[in-house]
Amino acid sequence: MQLDAIQSALRGLKMDAWLFYDHHYRDPIAYRILGLPESALVTRRWYYLIPAEGEPRKLVHRIEAGRLDSLPGSKGEYSSWQELERGLAAMVAPYNTIAMQYSPRNAIMYVSLVDAGTVEVLRGWGKTVVSSADLVSCFEAVLSDEQIASHYEAQALLDEILTEGFREIGRRLRPGYGGAVRTTEHDMVKWLQDAMRRANLVWEHGPNVSVNENSADSHYEPTAENAKEVHDGDFVLIDIWARKNRPGTCYYDITWTGVVGREPTEQEHKVFETVKSARDAAVKVVSEAFANHQPIAGWQADDAARAVINQAGFGEFFTHRTGHNIGNVLHGYGAHLDNLETHDERLILPKTCFSVEPGIYLDTFGIRSELNMIATPGHAAATGRVQDELVRC
């Protein structure tokens, strides 16, 4: 646990304390930030309060009195619910503004983990409960220098694998391949997986190769049973993500689109140019904010991309957020670029990574253009190759 860093962050955000609370592992964030083992038996409520200044305090049940012994601070114990409430009241008494894993109106559900009853108790004592969302981002989403370097390792490998994947589609369907080879979306998924294994990359599931109307399903997963065959004339989308096969490494996650054996249609070109412009608008607003040392929240970047697509008349076909945080897990714990599914007020922090991936999904095809950005103090930029035109396979 980074006690000094947590207390410094509390002071910076003008919060008096951060109260962690768990029962039966309802709050995995607490275990990760506090460095607690997730294998111990936890059948009773525990509380851990970190003040902006001073010594932390613990409150544990007597039959599980050792659950927080690995953490610094004084310890109180309880058995009855009345004793628990007296102990908790004494613990929080000196503090007014208390952060918890809470989000007003469940706006950011990723951190909305504390139950309403506990919030009611604290408010009944006159406490102001505020969201820990930005605190969580500081300790869950900020990357080390080694993690940032690992992202670029994955980027260099995955960019090349993606390029070769599109070439492989063309080779399989051209006579020069030795005759056209029957190839399905799932066949190409397996080809990409084999290439990633050879590069010593790991990933969660996927990747995704989808043609024609399947590319309009943003979470389509081709299987051996449902996959479509790939033909000349098809529209194709590849979404691929991976990280280096070492503990703690950071993901790289990209989506490109193209056409097989032909030039894009006028409609495909128009949709691609709209999506590209939306992507670039989000990149620009984030880059300018960091260059000018101005704070920017996830919802603001989403608005920048969505405005372009709305202006072009495709707003109803952009059905997901603009981007997500990226870390050691693909969908990380920091700010998402989102003002559609959620109103994400979390700040985009320095030394965080995130995707920018607007999309338009029509009946016969869908286009998403995904790149990754890393923000550092005074600078934010894309980390890999950026698609500027539809691929020709």
Q: What can you tell me about this protein's structure?
A:
The chain has 393 residues and is α+β, with helices and mostly antiparallel strands. The chain has 2 domains: 3-140, 3-Layer(aba) Sandwich (Creatine Amidinohydrolase, Chain A, domain 1), CATH 3.40.350; 145-392, Creatinase/methionine aminopeptidase superfamily (Creatine Amidinohydrolase, Alpha-Beta Complex). It contains 9 helices and 17 strands. It has helices at residues 3-12, 28-34, 81-92, 116-124, 133-140, 145-173, 185-198, 266-291, 298-311, and strands at 17-22, 46-51, 57-61, 74-78, 97-100, 128-131, 201-202, 208-211, 235-244, 252-259, 325-326, 352-356, 359-361, 366-368, 371-376, 379-382, 391-392. Strand 9 (235-244) and strand 10 form a beta hairpin. Helix 6 (145-173) crosses helix 7 and helix 8 packs antiparallel against helix 9 (298-311). The chain is elongated, with a radius of gyration of 24 Å. The mean pLDDT is 94.
